[in-house]
Write a structure and sequence with these properties.
α1 packs parallel to α2. Helices cover 31% and strands 22% of the residues. InterPro entries: LDcluster4.
């Protein structure tokens, strides 16, 4: 399933890999929102995990509310858990995939990547994307 918006795809997008939770510091949410606002101000679109919760939701809301393009890619199995109604990102382009194996980093939309580091662990999709782009 795909939904479309009227916001055109920008010439540059950043693919962000981050959590559907807020982590252990309120500063994380604030910095995620700052990143989203800066991306929009610099005319970068967002490609991300498609959720509206946690840090990924904060980034998407900030990009969208500042008038920039948002493209979410989310596995169907995660829609109920990570995608709650949010007026701030109603303008999102959304792809709902039938499998977790359909990663967002496989799209030609991505010009740069931001990957949240979780302790000594990097988000798996980000690691896969980096390895795909080094082949």
């Amino acid at each position: 399933m795909t939904t479309e918006t009227t916001i055109p795809v920008p010439s540059k997008t950043i693919c962000v890999f981050c959590g559907s939770s807020f982590g252990n510091s309120s500063e994380f949410a604030s910095e995620a929102a700052n990143l989203g606002k800066l991306m929009a101000e610099k005319n970068y679109g967002l490609v991300y995990g498609g959720g509206t919760t946690g840090l990924m939701g904060e980034i998407a809301k900030a990009v969208s509310s500042n008038g920039a393009y948002v493209h979410g890619v989310i596995p169907d199995a995660l829609v109920a858990k990570e995608r709650v109604s949010s007026e701030e990102i109603e303008k999102i382009n959304e792809e709902i995939k039938n499998s977790v194996d359909n990663h967002k980093g496989e799209t030609p939309l991505d010009d740069a990547y931001v990957i949240e580091k979780l302790d000594n662990y990097v988000v798996p999709e980000g690691r896969f994307t980096l390895s795909w782009n080094n082949q």
